[in-house]
Specification:
By secondary structure, the chain is mostly helical. It is 54% helix and 7% strand.
Amino acid sequence: MGVYICQCWAVTDHEVLDVVERGAHTVEAIGNACGAGTDCGTCREELADLLDCAGVKALAELVGATPRH
């Protein structure tokens, strides 16, 4: 199930990471894909943090390292 990131649209962290894996690489692209961050906007910072973590993980996998996030 996951943790709700966007309360307005009931979007979980799993849903956000799924749309990131499918190519949503900005907060705006995440909003376009699943609605998160498009209503009150209080989750936009957390969405940006998830993007940062996803990017660190992907980069670490490319170089064979363990991410710190």
